[in-house]
Amino acid sequence: MATIITVSNQKGGVGKTTTSGALATGLAAEGKKILGIDLDPQGNLGFCLGLEATNGPTVLDALKGKLPVREAIRHTEYCDILSSDITLSNGLNVERSGPRECILRTTIEPVINDYDYIIIDTPPALNLLTVNAYAVSDYLVIPMASDILSLVGLSQLKETIDGIRASLNPGLKVLGILLTRFNARTLLSRDVLEMAQQLAGQIDTVVFDAKIRTGVAIAEAPAHGESIFDYNPRSSAVQDYQEFVQEVIGRINSAKEA
User: Fold this and answer.
1) Which of 88, 127, 133, 249 could link 41 by a cystine bridge, Cβ 3.0 to 4.6 Å?
2) In which element (H, E) is residue 60 found?
3) Where are the domains of the chain?
């Protein structure tokens, strides 16, 4: 059965989709079979994974039951994906049996055993789409830009996680907080790291050892239809993401052995 990881933060501009794409392509490079699920109506995960911008089935078609999930899955050089577009902005106003918070779980049930990892990118909001992702996930990864504003709202996120554990998914774990746009030479980044570590303790998790520095290769890679690892493996930010992927693998393996 696939290990399901959701990348989530209610704040935009923190590197959420880049992190989702890095996890998907980085794990695929380790020989793992990956399904990416884009629950963000902006639809950028497919772009990051090299999916051509052509009309095709989307995750909403599967969620609505218009298509069996296997027929909605599209294929890229790196992995499979349930892509999205702006039509998903209407949310999960679909007629399906069972709780609305579990529509995604019901939808992907037929393919969970087909993959080693499922990576879910979520919108920058704590809405029903995000709740569906939390309800089906084993782990959360929380990317957070290295600025004070990114710290705001994590307490609300804690409440959401506690609510999901109590009602829908008692096994949900926060794998860690990932600091992006990090510059160890600045006092601000060091202060944010200290505060992030305190917040991590409150939600029973850690700040990843890997910290993602700013790098132009991260922004350029999708425009060339390549993963960040293929586009410029020597970029410091790309190397940071490689370290992050290895840390994710290690933390999950340790959790399974515990």
Assistant:
1) 88
2) helix 59-64
3) 3-257
